[in-house]
Amino acid sequence: MVGETEPLPSAAPPLGRLPGMQATLTHDGFIALPDFMGPDLLAEVRARVEELFAQEGDSAGAEFKQEPGARRLANLVNKGEVFERIVIDPTILGLMTEVLGPEVKLSSLNVRSANPLSGGLQPLHVDGGFLPDTHGYCVCNSVWMLDDFTEYNGALRVVPGSHKSGRLPQDVLADPLARHPEEILVTGRAGTVVVMNAHLWHGGSENHTAAQRRAMHGYYTRRDLPQQQFQKRLLSRQVQARLTPKARWVLALDDPLNDELCERTTSMSGFLK
Ligand SMILES: O=C(O)CCC(=O)C(=O)O
């Protein structure tokens, strides 16, 4: 995790490319960055996330969606300074631009925690139901592991290479909830961040353990598409006032096209939609 002192990007933020990353992201549709968060950041995020779950109770996640078998939080940039730092991380932004091109913005920052003892199974899906369009890929996600992801606790499952299929899983699979013959589990230590082309067929798997499995999702999109969560409307005046120019750019707070796109979007899309 790198600092937040970069100058305002004229179009794109600086690339934070690491050797070998692009090949895997391009070919497989995802890349894992072990120990990316570091222990202090991990502890800070976990503590704030649990505070928010306690404060929000039954309404947690309601700004976006609530999901049987999982606890969720939404609209996180409005809910803690640590999240303002996370969404402008240059390495993550650099990888987003590898997939989406230079014109990227945050779509949403959420948390999803697969419930213990059989919660968390999701159908294979692509985020927002998007297929690539004539300009290329539309959406890219980052999955920040707040707990170890193991074979047993609801790790992310993905079908490598499926981002290039040009098909939606629900259109071609008899049962998107079923195990896919080519799927793999993306396991890793807490603190790992996975950057994933969000056209990749993926989903949470079932948590067979007695502990929760938490992840934070930093979801980005191209600037010619609406945000999943309209940041300008959802962020308080107080939060907006303290944001750096770079954060304002990433959040599209001064972007008339984003205002228009988001005003037109009457519902926020979840998986399979
Ligand atoms: O939390 C996960 O492992 C995946 C979540 C996901 O793909 C989603 O909620 O769309």
Bound molecules: 2-oxoglutaric acid
Q: What can be said about the biggest beta sheet?
A: 6 strands, antiparallel
Helix/strand/pairing class, anyone?
Answer: alpha+beta
Order of helices and strands: HEHEHHEEEHEEEEHHHH
Low-confidence parts:
1-18, 269-273
The number of domains? 1
CATH topology: Jelly Rolls
Determine the CATH superfamily: q2cbj1_9rhob like domain
The Cα radius of gyration reads 17 Å
Count of helical segments? 9
Q: What is the end-to-end distance? A: 32 Å
Give the total of beta strands.
9
Shape: globular
State the helical fraction.
25-40%
Q: Using the coordinates above, name the CATH class.
A: Mainly Beta
Query: Mean pLDDT, nearest integer?
Result: 91
Q: How does the SSE layout of this entry go?
A:
Blueprint: H1 21-27, E1 30-33, H2 38-56, E2 70-73, H3 81-86, H4 90-100, E3 104-114, E4 139-145, E5 156-158, H5 169-172, E6 184-186, E7 193-197, E8 202-204, E9 213-222, H6 231-234, H7 237-242, H8 245-250, H9 256-264
Antiparallel strand pairs: 1-7, 2-3, 3-9, 4-7, 4-9, 5-6, 5-8
Bound molecules: 2-oxoglutaric acid.
In short:
This protein is of the alpha+beta class.
How would you explain this protein's 3D organization?
- The chain has 9 helices and 9 strands.
- The chain is of the alpha+beta class and 273 residues long.
- The chain has a single domain, classed as q2cbj1_9rhob like domain (Jelly Rolls).
- The strands form 2 sheets. A 6-stranded antiparallel β-sheet has the order 1-7-4-9-3-2, covered by helices on one side.
- It is globular, with a radius of gyration of 17 Å.
- Bound molecules: 2-oxoglutaric acid.
- The site of 2-oxoglutaric acid has 9 residues, from strand 8.
